[in-house]
Design brief:
Layout: H1 2-31, E1 37-40, E2 42-46, E3 52-59, E4 65-73, E5 78-79, E6 84-87, E7 92-97, E8 101-106, E9 117-123, E10 131-137
Parallel strand pairs: 2-9
Antiparallel strand pairs: 1-6, 2-5, 3-4, 3-7, 7-8, 9-10
């Protein structure tokens, strides 16, 4: 009688192990089909009392321009342009204020986290820095 229970217990253990193996192997297959695109997001804030033009250029890791647009922003205005969908990579933001001051900001080291990043472009009226870039994770 005890042998029946032992064999039943072994059979249940084997079946449970097979079920876990199948579930985990299927979940690994879905991970390999992740979306290869990411979204670059930024917004521009003009804290100055003067209108400015801000050019946003985005370059990929091969130094190829993927986006280049100039925004004219009024005093105390905020702009949140449409997010840009690109292949997951490390990108360089090249920001130019009034065709003179240029700053650069690299997206994170980990392209898989690209969708979490946000670049804040701040135009100031302060004497030290007229253009500031802030990198945030949302």
């Amino acid at each position: 009688m005890n042998k029946k229970y032992v064999y039943t217990f072994i059979a249940i253990c084997v079946l449970t192990s097979i079920a876990f193996f199948i579930v985990f192997s299927l979940s690994d297959q879905t991970d390999t089909t992740k979306n290869e695109n990411g979204t670059l997001r930024f917004f521009i804030r003009n804290s100055d009392n003067t209108a400015h033009s801000v050019t946003v250029e985005i370059l990929d890791s091969q130094n190829t321009s993927k986006f280049n647009k100039t925004y004219n922003i009024s005093p105390n205005e905020r702009l949140k342009p449409t997010p840009i969908s690109l292949k997951k990579d490390t990108y360089l933001y090249k920001i130019t204020l009034d065709n003179s001051t240029t700053k650069r900001q690299i997206t994170g080291k980990y392209p898989e986290d690209l969708d979490l990043e946000l670049l804040i472009i701040e135009v100031n009226n302060g004497p030290k820095e007229s253009l500031e870039l802030h990198h945030a994770i949302e």
